[in-house]
Amino acid sequence: MKYITFAVPCYNSENYMRRCVDSLLIGGKDVEIILIDDGSSDRTAQIADEYEIEYPDIVRVVHKENGGHGSGVNKGLELANGIYHKVVDSDDWFDKESYQKLLVKLKAFTGERPDLIVCNYVYDHLDEGIKKSMDYKNVFPIEKQCTWDEIGKFYPSQYLIMHSLMFQTKVLRESEVKLPEHTFYVDNLFSYKPLPYAETIYYMDIDLYHYYLGRDDQSVNEKVLMKRIDQQILVTDLVTRSVDLAEVKKIHPKLEAYMVRNISIMLTISSIHLLLIDTADSYKKRKDMWNHVKEYNEALYYRLRFRTLSGFTYLPGKIGASLTIGGYRLAKKVYRFQ
Length: 338
Fold this sequence. Notes:
Elements: E1 4-10, H1 17-25, E2 31-38, H2 44-54, E3 59-64, H3 69-79, E4 84-87, E5 93-94, H4 96-108, E6 116-125, E7 130-134, E8 165-168, H5 169-175, H6 187-190, E9 201-212, H7 222-227, H8 229-241, H9 245-251, H10 253-277, H11 280-296, H12 298-307, H13 317-335
Parallel strand pairs: 1-2, 1-4, 2-3, 6-9
Antiparallel strand pairs: 4-8, 5-9, 6-7, 6-8
């Protein structure tokens, strides 16, 4: 039995993928690790093959034409055999002690397993020796199975990202989540669309996932995000349209409130970076982005515009833009999310 399938999309990852894979191998034969070589041009494919030869009962390798991160995630889910499924970026890694605690818990579950396991993640500026743990102790009961009706309130800095979530494989497949190819920021869709399909949640207060920050070419780097702003806008639109929130609200109103908040965060990120670009075209894109929400769901538009954080990033004029950017700079300094 494989308790977890780890899907690790790899593209030109030769300089750091060993740190990632070695941290996952601690799970031994209780896990499977699928390394998806996404058309790399460096030694990534060779390194992956070496792992498969050395650990044939744990590691599987897929070589495919380049399709982007989303394509790798799709392939990993297609091939997964584990009860749970976890996507791990090739420059990130697991904490050994927390990982061992997770495996012990997975083996100890009796009866119906939770659909979703939530753990903490760590913003890890490894090169600077700076870490910031993001937990959910105020949101979920600790090590007690719950439903969306029992969750607490999220703080402004908290949201459920792919690094904190581990769904049952069958839940992901039931949700029919599929990510677009050759597009960045698609992990937002992967951590959003399946949520209504997870009826039960189990939270462990462990710092499991280390999210590496510091590479100049990372997609979350401010300059890179500004360069790829059209892709961020696209994914924001895909997320907004991916779930019928009215139907979610009928069953789990607290989950629906969180999902609206998630859209708000994505609009906030897009709006801020369009303001940082500071051109006539970027201001037009910001206006168009909000208009697309209004065209899709007018009630949602007004809720986002006047009752959530994202509305404060759509303040009129230069003064409004300055206030928005100032708030963003302060949050970035406090939470170290880039």
